[in-house]
């Protein structure tokens, strides 16, 4: 659904006015001064059903309290070499902003290996980026443009996606479920770049399983997507893998400081410094202890489970010798 009625917003607001103080405090960290926009996001995620949106929002707030999500930005991943390993294997970064002021996040779907740390470190890193986006990046953009900016754009690079992705499906499903349940409707549009040859075949299988509101957000771009993306953002905000005329991406050595995935990129330097500073503000005399910040891993939602099983089935078909090239697209992109 494209719009949510004012009546539904008012009903959900009335229900939220009754929640206990502890949940209300964490709700303030969620909405960051824009409660109406937050209510609209949860209503959209539940097709305008007030009762379902209320339950979803309450479950989200309880999840935040139980897992101390409000404190996650004061829990550094250390040592720095470990964090660098996470960044080298979980490729995500902020490349810039659209002409409308929305943050542009780049995600290296095909080249992410998720093999340098435990599942908990990757989940911690993902949630920290979500929280930094929602509590620092988006409020700053809103202030700069003098209007609420509560969503972002994501450019997904499919370069290098191979059968080895089979081992990543469980982790990707966990991360996607975290987003589905707790960060709904945070992505305005997903742009697919550098789609491999068999993308269309896998997309036909996955697309019908996605909710209509998600399908409408997905735009598959030709080649690197540069020309299409330049209509909505300046060249300086293009992810590094979109700056060529053709298709293709690469690792850090190819792009140097332009690579927004790298720990050396200003976005990750600022993020890591912010988290370390927050730790020192909270516990100035305590040494930072190594160890991941454990968050209860959610059971995959029904839709997510179905999509993961479908992708896994398709991958097995290719692996068993369908004669197709050893690459694919089929990443689960529903949700936030």
UniProtKB/TrEMBL annotation:
SMART domains (alphabetical): CRAL_TRIO_N, SEC14
UniProt keyword annotations, A-Z: Coiled coil
Stored Pfam families: CRAL_TRIO, CRAL_TRIO_N
PROSITE patterns: CRAL_TRIO
Signal peptide: none
CRAL-TRIO domain location: 79-250
Coiled-coil spans in chain: 2-29
CDD domains: SEC14
Protein name: Phosphatidylinositol/phosphatidylcholine transfer protein SFH1 isoform X1
UniProt source species: Rhodamnia argentea
Gene: LOC115742969
């Amino acid at each position: 659904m494209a719009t949510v009625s004012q009546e539904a917003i008012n009903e959900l607001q009335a229900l939220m006015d009754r929640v206990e103080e502890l949940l209300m405090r964490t709700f303030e960290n969620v909405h960051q001064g824009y409660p109406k926009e937050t209510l609209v996001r949860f209503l959209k995620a539940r097709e305008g059903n007030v009762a379902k949106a209320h339950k979803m929002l309450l479950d989200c707030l309880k999840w935040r309290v139980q897992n101390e999500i409000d404190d996650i930005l004061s829990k550094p991943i250390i040592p720095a070499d470990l964090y660098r390993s996470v960044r080298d294997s979980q490729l995500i970064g902020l490349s810039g902003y659209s002409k409308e002021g929305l943050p542009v996040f780049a995600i290296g779907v095909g080249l992410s290996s998720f093999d340098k740390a435990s599942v908990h470190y990757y989940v911690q890193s993902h949630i920290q980026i979500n929280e930094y986006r929602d509590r620092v990046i988006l409020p700053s953009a809103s202030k700069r443009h003098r209007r609420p900016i509560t969503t972002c754009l994501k450019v997904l690079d499919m370069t290098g996606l191979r059968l080895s992705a089979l081992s990543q499906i469980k982790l990707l499903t966990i991360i996607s479920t975290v987003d589905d349940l707790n960060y709904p409707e945070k992505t305005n549009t997903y742009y697919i770049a550098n789609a491999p040859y068999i993308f269309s075949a896998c997309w036909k299988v996955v697309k019908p399983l996605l909710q209509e509101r998600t399908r409408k957000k997905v735009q598959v771009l030709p080649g690197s997507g540069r020309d299409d993306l330049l209509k909505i953002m300046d060249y300086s905000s293009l992810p590094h893998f979109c700056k060529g005329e053709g298709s293709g991406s690469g690792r850090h050595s190819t792009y140097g400081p332009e690579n927004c995935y790298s720990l050396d990129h200003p976005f990750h330097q600022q993020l890591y410094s912010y988290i370390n500073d927050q730790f020192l503000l909270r516990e100035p005399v305590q040494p930072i202890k190594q160890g991941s910040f454990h968050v209860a891993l959610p059971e995959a939602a029904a839709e997510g489970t179905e999509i993961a099983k479908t992708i896994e089935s398709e991958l097995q078909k290719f692996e068993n010798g369908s004669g197709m090239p050893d690459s694919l697209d089929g990443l689960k992109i529903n949700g936030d």
